[in-house]
Amino acid sequence: MTALVRTVLGDVPARELGAVDSHDHLHLRSAQLPGQELDDQAAAAAELGAFRAAGGGTVVQWTPYGLGRRAERLAELSRATGVHVLAATGLHQARHYPPGAVERAGDLARLFVQELTEGLRADDGAPLPVRASLVKVAGSYHGLDAHARTVLAAAAEAHRATGAPIAVHLEQGTAAAEVLALLCDRLAVPPERVVLGHLNRFPDLRLHREAAERGAYLCFDGPSAAHHATDWRLLDALKELVDAGHVRQLLLGGDTTTARARSFGAGGAGPGMPFLLTGLRPRLRRELGEEAAELLFVGNPARAFALPDPD
């Protein structure tokens, strides 16, 4: 049976995704990033167009509920640029929202399931005919606070109802073990349905191997000016995991969270989405080999974000 992936334009065969940016943002508005909102549709289209020109096929947008994801514009962007776009439901850390916004979201598990099965809510609350394909959640720094535990529990419930993967923002790359202990050991989410993000920000190779041994996907996102201090360790971390036998669990993303971080052609200071393919992919081919590079950009995301097999 052909594996399918849910995009904002409908379900497509996973083999048609092409090269995938497994963690990025087209639109984003956070109280933590004043003045750097990603809310320019023309800039988003330019960024996707540059990614397409570099050989990109799909962008997985991790912007969750309530953070200016502009869900009503995602289908338009995908159609105009020819790039597949995956959308997220879920919830970020409480500090990213205005006061009271999390409480107004109501029953989180119900919200997540609705957005996965019926359609996303627009920023004004109106229902849309665009369904999410993943649940984005977040941990805390070296642990899980009460908000994180509540949101992860709701994400696990939504996963059990839909089979959707859960993508986790690890604060500064920490608390991977705590996240897996809660989601997989206590809440029965299969580890192969968990994507751990931001591991490049905490380049502890032993912890990376331990997370991989649990069976989760490991997403190394960036590089960016904000996290340049660990950029130079990226290839070493990836090679360590490839040599340890975990090449089929690795993903790469740009994680563009501010207007300034977009590519030059989209009005930013770089490096932006295209750099994954123009700058990083050639180095991966030289360091890890063509087969490994193909898995990181094509084969692995096609499995990580695929719809569950029907019973």
From TrEMBL:
Modified sites of kind N6-carboxylysine: K136
Metal-binding recorded as keyword: yes
Pfam families assigned: PTE
Protein keywords: Hydrolase, Metal-binding
Keyword Glycoprotein in record: no
Entry-linked PROSITE patterns: PHOSPHOTRIESTERASE_2
InterPro entries: Metal_Hydrolase, Phosphotriesterase
UniProt similarity note: Belongs to the metallo-dependent hydrolases superfamily. Phosphotriesterase family.
Protein name per the record: Phosphotriesterase
Organism: Streptacidiphilus alkalitolerans
